[in-house]
Every structure is written in structure tokens, then in C-alpha cells.
Amino acid sequence: MGISIVVLLAVVVAFWFVGAYNGLVALKNQVVNAWKQIDVQLKRRHDLVPNLISSVTGAMNFERETLEAVVSARNRAIQVEQSGGTVAATAQAEAQLTGALGRLLAVVEAYPDLKATGNISQLQEELTTTENKIAFARQLYNDTATQYNTRQRQIPTVFIAGMAGASPVELWEISEPSERAVPKVEL
Amino acid sequence: MAQDLFSQQAANRRRSRWLVAAFIAFFAWLGFGGDLIAYLATRDTPPGAYHHVLPLGGLLLTAIAGGIAALAWHTGAQKVLWSTGARELTVATTSAEQQLINVVDEMAIASGMPRPRIWLVPDDDPNAFATGRDERNSHVAVTEGLLRTLDRDELQGVVAHEMGHIKNLDIRLTTLLAALVGAVALLGDGAWRMIGRGGARLTAVGGGSRREGKRDGAGPLVLVLLALWIMSWLLAPLITRLLALSVSRNREFLADTMSAQFTRNPLALASALEKIENAAAPTRSIKSGSAHLCIADPAGHARRLLGVFATHPPMSTRVRRLRAMGYGAAQ
After folding, report:
1. Is A37 on the interface with B (CB under 8 A)?
2. Nearest CA to A77 among A103, A96, A51, A101?
3. CB B61 within 8 A of CB B70
4. Which end of chain B is more exposed for a tag (fewer CB within 10 A), N or C?
């Protein structure tokens, strides 16, 4: 009787262990995958910028500053990416690019002549979807990472987190003050 | 009712599990309950007489449901899309089409799923539906009226709702439930004759065992069970349909919360639902058999108001819950 209870308990613990361990490993892979999704979208944006600049550059000669800000923000973001930056460094560089692109979009909106051509409305849609894709990829990464971080700290999973090679991952936070600020509207 | 997104989601999932469990339990009672009664009734008969051991009734009902489900499974997506006259959207020719493709791409990223195939239904009424077997074989269809009526954010909310159905495997669930409802309807007719014959025999057996005085309790128990079982079959077509509809309504709420999770913008879906509700015309190109897949019941207001017989919850309730999520997030 006593032995059978011990055996039963051991079986229950073994099942729990396998389930919790595999759950942590699966979540970790989801986090890695979600991070790759952000990467894909960031690369897409880096590739988009040159086309974008060349299609507005003629009409916007007088907005040199805005255009140059976009180009330099993009180059810095690529640098960080190629040097294998941390989550925080990548987030910061990309936030700069997001800010610069946002200002460009605002400028484009301010020129009715520019807006009237079909190209620009296409461009706006392209910019919107690019920014959205990055935002949604970031959202998925942060959600998955939060789930992973929470799970590995909860009892009883916390007891095997070390064995499963689980450690807390960094969230992608908005570090650029300009992105947090409420946009100024001038009438 | 809990207010914020994730507690609404959890509550819906819990409710859904109970409903499906109740459905399956009722279905098992319809099928295997008869076998149990026959087993109890023939247990005390002499060794040479018939003993009901193999649960043939239950197996037959399960096999029929399985057959219907398999058939619907293999032809379902194509049939639904074909019946609406939808055309697949691969290369955008207008800016509205490009926007739809972009929005679906965005929601695929937000949900972490592969992108579904996109279809356009030539219908002026705003509506949308999802179909397909799983994440890898999925389709999202929207009507041309929807593209014209909604702005970008609202379209995103609707597409996210449909992706929520795909993510939750709702198409699999509703196909299965529809098959169970169909099997009950199909067998109902044949079962009447079986009950008629078997009932007479069981009554005779019940009386016989009491005369022998061996098992006093078995006779009345069998009769009570039999009465219950016959009553269940009488009401079965209605009960199974109501349960399936209840599951369907519950999954709509759940898909609304999934949409809020993907877009973090429940207010846009709320305003989209209001626009869809205010569009008067029914969606003619979508047959009522596919209604549970749509964002709103294609039959229009008349059926939307029917409470327990509706495939979708009342629009005002959905909008209210979405608003609650939105204000919860804003705090």
C-alpha cells in the first residue's frame, strides 16, 4: 500500500516534469521565432527607405532636413543590426527611424500637391503597413516574452526553470521620448 | 462579466468548454444510453435468449456523425467559397485591394500565423467570413461592400475577428457540431421505429423479471431510463441545434476578444460592427448554412434578433463588451 502510493506520486511528478519542461522549451522557441519576425519586418523597412526617398525627393527638395534625418536614422539602424546589437540597442535605433518616418509622413500630408499624385497615397499606405507590421511583430514578441518570463518565475515551474535553460528575456520597450510624446498638431 | 480583454477571453473559453462537454454528453446519452437500457433489460434473461452487449446503437450514431464530419471536412472550404462566387485576391489591382492584402498581412503577424488566402465576394452588403481546416489551410473572405464601407482600422478589426476564428480552430469545432446535429436529425427518423419495437419488448421483459422476483429494482429503473431516453430523442433535434447555436454565439464573443488582442483596438471593431449592422440589406451571396462563419449573420436583422435561435449574439451586446475592453485598456 505504502509503496504503491510512492510509485503513484513518482509517476505524477514525472508527468508534471515532462509537461512543464516541454512547455518552457516550446515557449522559449516561440520567443525566438517572434523575435525573428520583428527582424524580418525591420529588414523590410530598411529596404523600403531608399525607394521612398527617391520617390519624394524631387517634390520635396526644400524638406532636405526631414529626408536626411530618415536616411541617417536608417543607416544607424542597419549599423546596429549588423553589429548584432542587444534588444535595447535595436529598439532604440529603430525607434529613431520610426520617429523620422513619422515626421516625413506628416510633412507629406502637409503638401496637397504631393498628396494629389497617386504615388503618394500608395506610399502612405506602404508606410502605414510597414509601421503596423513592425508594431504587431513587436506586440507578439512582447506578449510571448511576457508569457515566458511569467511562466518560468511561477511556482512550481520555477524549480525546473534552471534545468530547462530558461532565463528571463528582454522586452522591446519604447525608449525614444519622441515616440512616447503626444504628436504636436499645428493649425 | 469581467471587463478587460484577457479575463473576457478566459471566461468565454470556460463557457465554451462546458457547452461542448454538455453537447458531447447529450450525444453520448442519445447513442449509448439506448444500449445501456437494452443491456440492463436483457441482463436477466435466460442464457439462450438475446443479450445486448455490443453497443451497436451508439457505434452507429458515432459512425454516421463521423462520416458526415469527414465529408464536410474534405469539401467544406471549397464548397463554401464556391457557393459565394468568391474570387481569390492574389495581386491587387486597386488601392482598396492592396490595403486589404496589407491588413491581412499585418494580422497574420499579430496572430503569429501563416497568412490565409484572401477572397473577395461580389456582394454589396458588408460581411466577412473565414473557412479552412487549420492555420495552414485557411481562407478569409470579405465582401466588396465591406471594403467600401469600412475604413482601414475597422477593416483590420474585422479581419482580426476572422483570424481569431482560425486561431481558435472554430471552423473545426463548428463542422464537428454540425455533423453531430446532422447525425441526430438523420437517425431520429430510423430511431422512432427502433424505439417502437424495442419499447414493447422491454416492457414485456420488465414485467417478466418482477414475476420472477429476482431483481425488483431493475424493471422500474429500465422503464424510467427508457422514458427519459425516448423523451431525449423527441427533443434531440431541437436540443442539439440550440446547443450548437449557443456554442456558435460563444465563439463569436471569443473571436471579438481575439480581434481586440491582435489589434489592441477594440473600438475600431465596435464601430465596424455598428456599420455592418446599419447596412440594411441581407448578404444574399452567403448561404445561411455558412452563417456561423461570418462576422454578422448574413440573414440580416430579422434573424439577428431571434435570441436562442441566433448564430450570433445581439450586436448591441458585442459592441458593449468591445467598448468595455477599449475603456479598460485606456485606463
Report:
1. yes
2. A96
3. no
4. C
ipTM score of the complex? 0.80
Instruction: Measure the CA–CA gap between A116 and B288, rounded to whole angstroms.
Output: 43
In sequence order, the 6+-apart residues with CB closer than 8 A to the CB of A146 are A171
Assess B94–A contact: CB distance below 8 Å, yes or no.
no
**Pair B229, B198: CB distance under 8 Å:** no
| pTM summary value | 0.83
| Backbone phi and psi for residue B143, each to the nearest 5 degrees, phi listed first | -85, 160
Contact in structure between B133 and B116 (CB atoms under 8 Å): no
Four-point Cα dihedral A83, A88, A93, A94, nearest 10: 110
- Answer for the pair B315, B296: CB distance below 8 angstroms, yes or no: yes
Question: What stretch of H or E contains B117?
Answer: strand B117-121
Cα–Cα dist B302/B281, whole Å: 11
Q: Do A133 and B264 touch (CB under 8 A)?
A: no
Cβ pair B248, B314 in contact under 8 A: no
Spatial distance between the Cα atoms of A29 and A7, rounded to a whole number of angstroms: 33
The candidate with the shortest Cα–Cα distance to B176, out of B120, B264, B240, B268, is: B240
CB distance B9 to B250 below 8 Å: no
- Dump the DSSP string for B78-93: HHHHHHHT-EE--S--
Q: Contact, B202 vs B38, CB < 8 A?
A: yes
Q: Tally C-beta pairs within 8 A across A and B.
A: 38
Q: Digits of tens for pLDDT over chain A (187 positions)?
A: 788 999 999 999 999 999 999 999 999 999 999 999 888 999 889 988 888 787 777 666 667 888 888 899 999 999 888 887 777 888 888 888 988 888 887 887 777 766 666 667 777 788 889 889 999 999 999 999 999 999 999 988 888 888 888 888 888 876 555 555 555 555 4
| DSSP for B176-229, written as a single string | HHHHHHHHHHHHHHHHHHHHHHHHHHHHHHHHHHHHHTS-TTHHHHHHHHHHHH
State the pairing for strand pair B117-121/B128-132: unpaired
Strands in B128-132's sheet, in edge-to-edge order, are B87-88, B117-121, B138-143, B128-132
Contacts 24+ apart (CB under 8 A), A88-92: A88/A170, A88/A173, A88/A175, A90/A42, A91/A172, A91/A173, A91/A174, A91/A175, A92/A175, A92/A176
Angle (deg, nearest 10), helices B266-278 and B315-330 = 160
B264 to chain A, any CB pair closer than 8 A? The answer is yes
C-alpha span between B194 and B175 (Å, rounded): 28
